[in-house]
Amino acid sequence: MSMPSETQTTAVHQTASAPAVIKVAIVEDQRDIREGLASLIKFTDGYHCTGSFRSMEEALDKIRFELPNIMLVDIGLPGMSGLEGIRRLKESWPEILLLMLTVYEDDEMIFDALCAGACGYLLKKTPPARLIECLNEAMGGGAPMSPEVARRVIKLFRQISPPDKADYQLTPHELRLLKLLVEGHNYKTAATAQGVKVTTIAFHMRNIYEKLQVHSKSEAVSKALRNRLV
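^ thats the sequence. predicted structure below, dont judge the formating
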């Protein structure tokens, strides 16, 4: 019996860890970059581009016609920003992986993107071959980042120094709910996970917002991570 070729071995490995064809959508306002990414995906074996959109509004309107496995998302977009967009995408389709591809490499942008639900953070200067590797890495459960970004993330988390006894008087039930939000749940999926109505979740979230002194889900998640509440 002949031994399997390297290509066959790779195919078996990819089948075990990822869909046979990985569906990718792109949100990028610069036409040349958007078309270049779409071509890269189109001509890479095992990948299919489900759509390339110039704005987040367009993506949110059309993505439902063919849901991707993973999305490449810019931050600086006309209209709705990529950060706000990934929060909305996560609420509607929590199973989609969201990988940032941007020119921004400041600490605040990186932290906000990861807190909003991004699975990784790449800079636009990432070479095409490396970009495909990062898509594979994300599909396999990894969190790909450009080297510059990874160094900033490590430095950022080393600098985070929450109070020794950060006590916001959250009840055990509120902490469980906050943990679900950190894991990417929205009100509806959190209600299903806890076996309660969405209105019940909304009631508890108002209490959580008041205790944490925040005004949105993303702010609550960010504060929970900064203060290691969950």
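Residues 50 and 66 are 6 Å apart (CA to CA).
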